[in-house]
Write the structure tokens for this entry.
Amino acid sequence: MALLDVSGFSSFSGFGKHRQAQLVDRPNHYSFGAKSQEFAVPVGVDPSTFLKSCNCEDGVSIDMNHGTTTLAFKFRHGVIVAVDSRASAGSYIASKEANKVIEINPYLLGTMSGSAADCQYWERLLAKECRLYKLRNKQRISVSAASKLLSNMMLGYRGMGLSMGSMICGWDKKGPGLYYVDDNGTRLSGRMFSTGCGNSYAYGVVDSGYNEDMTVEEAYELGRRGIAHATHRDAYSGGVVNLYHMKEDGWIKVCKEDVSELIHRYRKGMF
Amino acid sequence: MLHPSLGKILLSCLERDLERIQFLDGFRGAAVPVLWNFMYQSDDHLPYSLPSISVQSAIPLYISPSVPLPFPLGHGTTTLGFVFQGGVIAAADSRSSCAGLVACPESQKIIPVHSHLVSTTSGTSADCALWKRILARELRLYQLRNRRRLSTGGAAKLLSHMLHPFKGTELSMDAGTQSKGTDGKKTGSVSETGPRLYYVCSDGLRLQGELFSVGSGSPYAYSILDGNIHWGLSVDEAVSVAREAVYRATHRDAYSGNNVDLYHVTAKGWRRRKREDLKEEYYREKERERKRVEERRREIENKKQTK
């Protein structure tokens, strides 16, 4: 229309055409992404090119390492989730009792590894989405759907420098569920996962002690051992072991034990 | 004291060996001529001691530019060694990989250096094989000259000093030398007894310790070793822990696999266990688990029936 052209107003072209980043002024952020799918990007700087400049050898190099150890495994009586509690910023230990498990609802748990800010924000967002799903559909969200929501959030910001390695554990109609979700958008279902830079140490221990029909006590001990040995050898893991057990009627927090005491117990008799 | 004429005969034998080694090394352009200067000193009248690595000329020496590596080399292996009351155990996998290709599924990563000294290797196979041969020769010379075996610490020190001129070039090697020390035949010097384990790396690092694991599969092995190793292990227990650790590492690490080699070093020397294919271990474990699940099921059924 003539008036539209003269005023220079260009309507939102939508899908198919080159998407433009628009500065939209809105009264609040609560309805962000509710009506149409939106992605928020910081003003001015393009995150992916900024990060590429940070990762090259000459100049500043920001290493995004997942500095932690978390592990989870499925067995006959549910899912065991064990995490350490050290939050590090480079070589500084920012917190020795960080909480790396988010209790999404009484039957869903999410672990965090990688950048603490990213994990906390996105998993809280996931918790909100799960709650909304329950209110809208009058039934609990399945573990598979919850992990898919999270992985789609990650895919939306792929290449922009998010750093998150998380495990979504729960018990739904299909039984115990365990999914690994990554900042690349990887989503894997499995029997046992371990994330973070101490994961290789945990894998060795849990692999050798695992069998499908362990008793509950044996499973607790295996989870504790995995984290304890990983914190013993990995510099970026430490603090306490937070152990959760996901059962059919919800999760329970089993224990919170200091890693140094555990290691002394296990290595009694060492020279 | 070695008779001068005998000394010359030995030297001429070594010259021939050196020519062969120089040929092998030519491909990498390593600075072989630099190191071997000291060997040709003809001052027979001086008592032979450990060969000195000091370079004599003031002019900058010929160090040929090292050939750049075609791809970044990781130490794709799992080797481990630990000390306990029954001696020293050395275990390693047997896979040699070249980027994504398994170049040799049956390589030897543990090389016996002499009757009481065993060395594990990690890094480029060529470098490791060459330097172990050189080390073996140096130790034999020492033994002939001084009528006693060089201690493990001395051997480790010798190796790390030999590698020092190559620091900064792309030599890649990690070694764990270990031996159960001999006693007796010394001439009054401090005798070293007992098992010893050293970790030597091409950066020049040399550490003494009681438990080491090297390579890309080492984190997986470390956690198992940490929990189960202590001084009072019996030989059978130690062997089974070492095998389990290598097995777990090969299970998770792509660059380790195939077979596991085990050497047990005692005061009488080293003994090699028969090479075991880890594929058998994997199937045995699966079989065990299957049996356990079946037994469990039977128990549950019996309980239901009795109720």
User: Anything to note?
Assistant: The longest helix of chain A spans residues 116-137. The interface with chain B takes residues 200-205, 207-208, 211-213, 225-226, 229-230, 232-233, 266-267, 269-271 of chain A (CB under 8 Å). Chain A has one domain: 70-269.
